[in-house]
Automatic annotation (TrEMBL):
CDD domains hit by this protein: ABC_NrtD_SsuB_transporters
Gene3D superfamilies: P-loop containing nucleotide triphosphate hydrolases
Organism in which the protein naturally occurs: Brooklawnia cerclae
Domain ABC transporter, first and last residues per copy: 4-234
PROSITE patterns: ABC_TRANSPORTER_1, ABC_TRANSPORTER_2
SMART domains: AAA (SM00382)
Protein name: NitT/TauT family transport system ATP-binding protein/sulfonate transport system ATP-binding protein
Keywords: ATP-binding, Hydrolase, Nucleotide-binding, Transport
PANTHER family: ALIPHATIC SULFONATES IMPORT ATP-BINDING PROTEIN SSUB (PTHR42788:SF13), TAURINE IMPORT ATP-BINDING PROTEIN-RELATED (PTHR42788)
EC number(s) per entry: 3.6.3.-
């Protein structure tokens, strides 16, 4: 059965007497260890869908379950990475990554574990650096490590590479694949970059311009590891 399970979900926003159907009767299932990308034009409800799975918002209709449990609020079981890292500016790389653990009250062997994740995202030389000293790609790696250190059942990524230059983006894509394989985690990625979706995903879900509808599910079952050239054919 699905790890992430949305059934007939609707989310309507009301502002100034105007109703926006951000999601309209959307169903989506993501299996354990699957890497799924959500693509679709701006405003089709991708962020709304991620926020519902994260427990940052709730639907008016339908059900959202992760691992068979209804989502009722945020949890370390569902890591979230924003387009721009949202790091604590006054805290070092190490301290930013450690905040994930602290929030859970895990103190034993915290230092070693934080170090492990600093190294895993390739920031060994920047463990004591502050966010303003990091490039955009480095900051996103910190945000990803901060979410992953909690061993979430699913990592939700909302255009994490959207603000990066293309070279840095390619680096981070490879890092994300490496982490996904190493930690056997489940990934749901929102992206505007079709090449990125093809390169990273097992499955691509297209959302249409009509409010929220998940129109098509394209199975991209390619053998891994995959040559980067294969993702380039749409260019
Ligand atoms: P993106 O295309 O990058 O997802 P959006 O502009 O659609 O960016 O939305 C960014 C965030 O702003 C959303 O997560 C949503 O919560 C909020 N937002 C979007 N539209 C509105 C709105 N009309 N009123 C209030 N908040 C909004
Ligand atoms: P996407 O991520 O695909 O760009 P969003 O999920 O951000 O789409 O938004 C879907 C629709 O819902 C858009 O029309 C957006 O303006 C609207 N919306 C999102 N968040 C809010 C909000 N907090 N208040 C009002 N409208 C919102």
């Amino acid at each position: 059965s699905a790890l992430v399970d949305l059934r007939h979900v609707s989310r309507i926003y009301t502002a100034d007497d105007k109703q926006t159907h951000a999601l309209d009767d959307v169903s989506l299932h993501v299996g354990e260890t699957e890497f799924v990308s959500l693509i679709g034009p701006s405003g089709c409800g991708k962020t709304t869908l991620l926020r519902l799975v994260a427990g940052l918002d709730s639907p008016q209709q339908g059900s959202v379950e992760v691992d068979g449990e209804p989502v009722t609020g945020p949890s370390h079981e569902r890591g979230y990475v924003f387009q721009q890292g949202a790091l604590f500016p006054w805290a070092t790389v190490e301290a930013n990554i450690a905040t994930g653990l602290k929030a859970r009250g895990v103190y034993s062997q915290q230092k070693a574990r934080v170090r492990e994740f600093v190294d895993m995202v390739g920031l060994s030389d920047f463990a004591h650096a502050y966010p303003h000293q990091l490039s955009g790609g480095m900051a996103q790696r910190v945000a990803i490590a901060r979410a992953l250190i909690n061993e979430p059942r699913v990592l939700l990524l909302d255009e994490p590479m959207g603000a990066l230059d293309s070279f840095t983006r390619i680096e981070l894509q490879d890092k994300l694949l490496e982490l996904w394989q190493r930690l056997a985690s489940t990934m749901v990625l929102v992206t505007h970059d079709i090449d990125e979706a093809i390169y990273l995903s097992d499955r691509i879900v297209i959302m249409t311009p009509r409010p929220g509808r998940v129109s098509e599910v394209i199975d991209v079952q390619l053998e891994r590891p995959r040559a980067r050239g294969e993702a380039g054919f749409l260019r």
